[in-house]
Design a protein that fits this description.
The protein has one domain (about 10-250): Roll (T-fold). It has an eight-stranded antiparallel sheet. Strands 5-6 form a two-stranded antiparallel ribbon. Strands 8-9 form a two-stranded antiparallel sheet. Helix 1 (about 30-45) packs antiparallel against helix 4 and helix 4 (about 105-120) packs antiparallel against helix 5 (about 205-220). The protein is an alpha+beta fold and about 260 residues long. Helices cover about 35% and strands about 25% of the residues. The protein has seven helices and twelve strands.
Length: about 260
C-alpha cells in the first residue's frame, strides 16, 4: 500500500472563524495569498459585523442597492431567487435575528468556492479548503481516493458522527451549535424550531451545498426530501435525540 502523501496546511482567520487550506503537491504561494485576499475582500463587502461593509451600509440605509458593487447586487439577486424557490423560507432580507438583511446563508459557501477557484486556476488541483465546518475539496487527497472529511457530532463535542470521501465535491452543515439562536424562521420572526440539531449536505457545489444545508435545517423533515431531489446531492440530519437520517446521495460518499 502506498504511503499517503503529506498535506501542507495553512490556517488564516476569516469570517470570525478560521479558513483551513490543505494542499498536496507544489504550492503556488502567490495563488495562496490571492486566495486569502479574495476571502478578505468578500468579508469586507458582505460582513454583517463590520459597519463599513456594503451589507451593513445597505441594512442601515446608508447605501442604496443600485449604488452597491456589482458583486453585491449579484449575490442579493441570487438570494432573491432563493426566496422565490423556497416560497419565502430562505429570506436574506430578513434573516438576522433583528429581522434585517443577512445573506450569510449563501455567502460563506459561495466565498469558499470563489477562493477555491483562484487556487484551481493557478494549477493547484489537489487541495481542500474549509471554513467553520463547510469544506470544498478537489483532487484525490492523500491516498488518491478522495479527501476524508468528518462531520462533527453536535451532541458529543470533539467527536464525529460520520465521515465522507470528497473528490471534486463539498460538504456544508447548518445548525444552532456554533451560534445558538442565529437561524431565524422568517415565517414567525423567531429563532428556528427545527427538529434538527445538525443538517449536512454533500454535493458538487459548495455554494449550493451551503444553501441547501440552511434551507434543509429550516425546512425540517421536508428538507431531506428537497435535497434528495437534487441530482448529485445528499443530506445527513441529526435529530435532538441523536437519531441520524441520511439520503441515498449521502450514503454513497460516506465511509
Amino acid at each position: 500500500m502506498l504511503e499517503p502523501a503529506s498535506v501542507h496546511r495553512i490556517v488564516r482567520p476569516v469570517f470570525g472563524s478560521a479558513a483551513s487550506l490543505g494542499v498536496i503537491g507544489a504550492i503556488n504561494h502567490e495563488a495562496v495569498e490571492a486566495c486569502f485576499t479574495r476571502l478578505d475582500e468578500i468579508e469586507e463587502r458582505f460582513s454583517t459585523y463590520r459597519p463599513t461593509s456594503e451589507i451593513s451600509r445597505i441594512r442601515d440605509g446608508l447605501l442604496h442597492l443600485h449604488d452597491a458593487h456589482a458583486e453585491t447586487r449579484m449575490v442579493l439577486e441570487i438570494c432573491d431567487a432563493l426566496y422565490e424557490e423556497t416560497s419565502g423560507l430562505f429570506d436574506a432580507w430578513h434573516a438576522s435575528m433583528d429581522g434585517r438583511l443577512d445573506p450569510s446563508g449563501f455567502v460563506k459557501g459561495w466565498a469558499i468556492g470563489e477562493a477555491m477557484g483562484v487556487l484551481n486556476q493557478a494549477g493547484m488541483v489537489n487541495l481542500t479548503l474549509g471554513i467553520g465546518g463547510d469544506v470544498a475539496a478537489t483532487g484525490g487527497g492523500p491516498r488518491g481516493i478522495g479527501w476524508d472529511v468528518g462531520v462533527v457530532d453536535p451532541l458529543a463535542p470533539g467527536s464525529v458522527m460520520a465521515r465522507v470521501l470528497l473528490r471534486d465535491a463539498a460538504i456544508a452543515t447548518s445548525g444552532p451549535t456554533e451560534r445558538p439562536g442565529h437561524l431565524r424562521d422568517p415565517r414567525t420572526g423567531l429563532p428556528s424550531t427545527s427538529p434538527w440539531v445538525s443538517f449536512s449536505v454533500v454535493g458538487p457545489s459548495i455554494a449550493r451545498a451551503d444553501t441547501l444545508a440552511t434551507i434543509g435545517y429550516l425546512e425540517g423533515e421536508e428538507g431531506l426530501a428537497r435535497v434528495d431531489q437534487e441530482p448529485g446531492f445528499g443530506a445527513l440530519a441529526m435529530a435532538y435525540d441523536g437519531r441520524l437520517l441520511a439520503t441515498e446521495g449521502f450514503r454513497l460518499v460516506s465511509i
